[in-house]
């Protein structure tokens, strides 16, 4: 299956998912959206009121701030892919519970596998925990780490944190400025990765050298 087909399959499954109790209060599930060839994947925490109404991620005030942040590094939503660790809105926008995150984990893993992003940006501590364990976001925000899967992961505060705490807005803006540098390093890593050559069958022309990435 192509990345587009996998992402579409996940979206269909999410739309009718009943793996946890969040399905009981949702208006619309929010599987995620963006370019199916995106090299940068943003992972937030969970949908809010506006996302639940529209079925799209980051369309409320935090989403407007995210759009501003993307524009500051010459990116648009159509250049990236945006999703959350849970695909349905938690009641009263409370924190997602461990069982809810676990219920959605397979969807997120399949999205990552389909996209094969060069860079994953976690937005908030719940998406950060998937990649950085119990580390504190106040300590590691803005720091990039290479992962064995071949991508670079960078933890950042959720855009909503900047709306609730004005002092964090500039911190988030400064962290976002690091994304182009992280992407450049990820591209360098990909270019330096081992190459594999598929042996031709009889009477076939030798194939072009293929990158593992």
Structure description:
The protein is of the alpha/beta class. It has a single domain (3-211), classed as Uracil-DNA glycosylase-like domain (Uracil-DNA Glycosylase, subunit E), CATH 3.40.470. It has helices spanning 3-15, 49-54, 61-72, 98-115, 125-132, 137-140, 159-164, 167-176, 179-192; strands at residues 33-34, 40-44, 81-84, 119-123, 144-146, 152-156, 195-196, 210-211. The strands form two sheets. Strands 1-3-2-4-6-5 form a six-stranded mixed beta sheet, sandwiched between helices. It is globular and about 45 Å long. It holds the Pfam family UDG. Keywords: 4Fe-4S, DNA damage, DNA repair, Hydrolase, Iron, Iron-sulfur, Metal-binding. InterPro entries: UDG_Type-4/5, Ura-DNA_glyco_family4, Uracil-DNA_glycosylase-like, Uracil-DNA_glycosylase-like_sf. It catalyses: Hydrolyzes single-stranded DNA or mismatched double-stranded DNA and polynucleotides, releasing free uracil.
Per CATH, what is the topology? Uracil-DNA Glycosylase, subunit E
Rg over CA atoms, rounded to whole Å, is 18 Å
Residue ranges: pLDDT <50 for 5 or more in a row?
Answer: 204-213
Helix content: 40-55%
CATH class (first level) name: Alpha Beta
Strand content: 5-15%
> Helical region count?
9
Any idea what the CATH architecture is? 3-Layer(aba) Sandwich
Tell me the number of structural domains.
1
In whole angstroms, the N-to-C terminal distance is 16 Å
**CATH homologous superfamily classification:** Uracil-DNA glycosylase-like domain
- Spatially, the strands of the biggest sheet line up as 1-3-2-4-6-5
